[in-house]
Amino acid sequence: MGGIWFRGREFITALSETIGYKTGLAVAEERLRGIVDEVGYGEYWPETDDAVMRIRSEEFEELFAGVLHRLGTGPPRRVVGPLTEVYQRNSDDPERKAAFDAVAPDFAEFLKESVAAAEPGATKLDPSAWLSAPRAHRRCVPRAATQASSRATR
């Protein structure tokens, strides 16, 4: 990923406005600075309004996610990719991993096609068409893996 160049005031304004948009809260600059310090990104707070700074985009995402969590509107850590998260939770069980291996490629393809077909500015994808598609239109999940998965969710 690339870096983002800000002047000090631009950084504060961008972070504040984005936090406000996501939470519906107007957070005072002093409070926002305190939260940024609390989540471990205090070194990114600009010393002056005119200071020129560069922050890697993934670090800005982590900072943003940390502030959202601290305000009670986000997960405790940024989820990079839902498929990665599901894989990590199931990779130690051979049957559940087999189910993941069977479904993940189709779901990844669904995501790719859905993003390509989405209207500009769209922020959500609806997976119901993929979930309700007949099995013949998706790869089959091995029966043993399906049974293991249903046992794990009971």
* Overall outline: elongated
Strands ordered across the widest β-sheet = 1-2
> Which structural class do you get from the secondary structure elements?
mainly alpha
Total number of domains = 2
Describe the structure in your own words.
The chain is mainly α and 154 residues long. It folds into two domains: 68 residues, no CATH class; 61 residues, no CATH class. Helices cover 58% and strands 6% of the residues. It contains seven helices and two strands. It has a two-stranded antiparallel ribbon. Helix 5 packs across helix 7. The chain is elongated, with a radius of gyration of 21 Å. The two termini are 40 Å apart.
Brief write-up:
This protein has 154 residues and is mostly helical. The protein has helices spanning 8-23, 29-38, 57-70, 82-90, 94-117, 128-132, 143-153, and strands spanning 3-7, 52-56. It has a two-stranded antiparallel ribbon.
Task: Walk me through the topology.
Blueprint: E1 3-7, H1 8-23, H2 29-38, E2 52-56, H3 57-70, H4 82-90, H5 94-117, H6 128-132, H7 143-153
Antiparallel strand pairs: 1-2
Keyphrases for this structure?
154 residues, mainly alpha, 2 domains, two-stranded antiparallel ribbon, 7 helices, 2 strands, 58% helix
